[in-house]
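Researcher: Structure prediction, please.
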Amino acid sequence: MSAESPVSTPGPGSGASYASAGVDIEAGDRAVELMKEWVRKTRRPEVVGGLGGFAGLFDASALKRYERPLLASATDGVGTKVDIARRLGVYDTIGHDLVAMVMDDIAVCGAEPLFMTDYICVGKVHPERVAAIVKGIAEGCVLAGCALVGGETAEHPGLLGPDDFDVAGAGTGVVEADRLLGPDRIRTGDAVIAMASSGLHSNGYSLVRHVLFDQGGLSLDQRVDELGRTLGEELLEPTRIYSLDCLALARTAEVHAFSHITGGGLAANLARVVPDGLHAVVDRSTWAPGAIFDLVGKVGRVERLELEKTLNMGVGMMAVVPAESAEVALTLFADRGVDAWIAGEITERGDHSTGAALVGDHPK
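Model: Predicted structure follows.
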């Protein structure tokens, strides 16, 4: 500022404030009060204190029963699926997606989910809206068996529009070192078991939104006969949470690995748990993907390989087990209401093969 342009100062009582900058502290406090009831529902015996402190506390003495406890951690969000929630004005399901993305990653290594924290970023705090998001996160934590020990709601006026928001979360779990699951356990002849997804889950929505809305001109309130409901209802279907199902299997039968089918699709995620020298072969003919996958492919004329490297194609989680444990696994999943089937096997790796491959065609 030049000397010829002095800085003017406001008169008494006319100064700027946090509220005038767009941040409503009282609305944030109101949101915390509304969410406390839902957070309490996730409480585990190891949680110390309540909501409102600077940090969530978890009594680590509970880990003394482990010989060599390994802590597993993960962090994630739900991507552009939040845009569907915003456009529909439905905020109490997106939290299920967040918990699934975080805690199912933790369960993959055989770890028991312990606790989670969330981060909700909004353009403007609408207390009831924030509380609805936390309600969904809390419900998801109950389904995953973990506690929601804290979080943060940040108001970013000017960076986000008044109705814009995003969510992220971080979680921690624990597994006994000698029960850690992963590539080292996998052997030739192991069975690959697929667990059905509840739909698109929380990956690939940038492609889905581009295809269905920008190219196809479809609307969220449009009923689609193939789906049996509106497009919005289908796209907002919560991600299935497999954590407790995976842990139940690991406690009941021998399990070598799990693979959470998220961004990158089935083959790429399964390859992450297949060791060098071995190959996972998955037969497409063992299942038919849901109608939403076919709809995205047809409307956008998306090639199958592009769909398969972007979307889960009807499989949300996979387990690799010894062949003799396969029937036990299928029975356990059936008892727990999880649609599962033997989708493939582990074989010796050929010279030009990748870690995992899809073969055959889906049934019509």
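Model: The chain has two domains: 24-48+66-179, 183-359.
Researcher: Thanks, that helps.
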